[in-house]
Amino acid sequence: METELNKLVAALCTSASVLQGALNDENVPNFRSDDPSPHPWDGGVPPPSAWYARKALVGLCYQIIALVQDPLERSIIDFTSFSLASSMNAVVRTQPTVAEVVLASGSDGIAVKDLAKNTGLDETKLYSLMHLLCTWNYFKEIEGGHISATRSTRALLPDSFVHGLSDSIIAGTAAASMLWEAAKTPSGSQHPSPFSLYHHVEIYDWIKARPDQIERFGRAMDTAEKTLDPGFILDLPVQDLGPNITLVDIGSGVGGLPMQLLKRNPGWKAVLQDQEILIPQMESFWKKDAPEIVESGRVTFLGHSFFEPTPLPPAPKDSPYVFMIKSVLHNWPDDLAAKILENLLPAAPPGTVLMIVNYTPAEPEPSKTTVEEFFRRINKHSMAEIQKAKIPLPDLLGVGWGFGDASVSTADMLMMLLMGSQCRTVTALKALLETTSWKFEGRTDYRGTTSVIKARRV
Ligand SMILES: C[S@@+](CC[C@H](N)C(=O)[O-])C[C@H]1O[C@@H](n2cnc3c(N)ncnc32)[C@H](O)[C@@H]1O
Predict the structure, then answer these.
(1) Does CATH number 3.40.50.150 belong to domain 229-363+399-457?
(2) Could you state, in order of their start, the residue ranges of all structural domains in the chain?
(3) Model pLDDT for residues 239-258, shown as the tens digit of each residue
(4) Ligand 1 center from residue 409 Cα (angstroms)
(5) Pick from 416, 449, 440: which is nearest to 356 by CA?
(6) Ligand 1 nearest atom to the CA of residue 256, by list position
(7) Beta strand ranges found along 299-342 (DSSP E)
(8) How far is the CA of 278 from the centre of ligand 1 (A)?
């Protein structure tokens, strides 16, 4: 008899053999739980079949957990999952961090007693932290009271996302206690976010009041972009935009991505627009990493608030503007997001292209595709071919990739907690665009956690 459990396990086996096949074909080492060195595919760009097989494996594992575990037990673990965040926070706050000391101990590992001495944590409490973090495979207890590193230990080093955002995430965790209250009010700038309800200050002002946070926050964003969106440059069919364009990146940050795009497209120019205060940091980043582009005048920096109409002059005839707004709209509720888009109009004649790069939560698209069929159809195909084929995702995985896309639903909730905003589904983005002078044209997924929504000025 084919049970639900059998079906999930069969799909798991299929996905595992696709992943193993890709590792063999690409001559890439196997994943090893006791090898703390970075795997070439961590933050890299595996072939599409392997990219999707990893997502399927994660999604299916969680479906099996949800199927077989006692729901009450699962809910107790999940409802107290702040214990994981707080343990991670505790071990990245020491100097040196717990991960640094464990990694330095090599494959022999280190006794908790010595780890405590090295990091200044109490031995008994550290052991409890280690029990929890070993349960989640960030470390391994190789024998009683003796800890060694795993494949995940590196994610708790001082240059990690966890370390960079430790203060703001923990402030957000405290603010989470107000979510039930804030969830009653509609999304809009007139309603406070859980963060401001709890801390009586907006997150941006909270960060500004902590100068050390600005640098750490920027670093964490850079790490997140590199880790979560490695395929943007390779997978996006940018040749459709034309050989000679001026890319206007709204809320660009330092502009690591436009820099890569300009390096690959010699006919492109860029305008990077962000807050005035960031301009010196942006300029020095470009002067250091792309001095030839700065000297040739292909990049310009515009300190300007996107809540005011853009001061950009009309685009040169031979280099039309293409606007890009990446990881920005999900920071703002609908009324402010629409204002940001409308403020581009003075420089956007009808027909102008806008690329919105954002986390885009999946929506149900019932299909009969099985996991086996999905992988058979994408096998050995390039990302461009897969994008064109628009193969429906297997229903068995749930909506989208299920837990394989948890970084999207987690980001969505983080936006709500910290900024009272949200990541928008295609349906929600279409509705938002309807209120503006931009029209939705399509969505492209690539090897990354975000998607590109193309819109055009009507
Ligand atoms: C989450 S970051 C995204 C940065 C970059 N686009 C990326 O994908 O890495 C949001 C950006 O919006 C910028 N920003 C916030 N308020 C702004 C404003 N009023 N005008 C212009 N930029 C703003 C921030 O300085 C920051 O660089």
Answers:
(1) yes
(2) 161-210, 229-363+399-457
(3) 889 999 999 999 998 898 89
(4) 21
(5) 440
(6) 9
(7) 299-303, 321-326
(8) 10
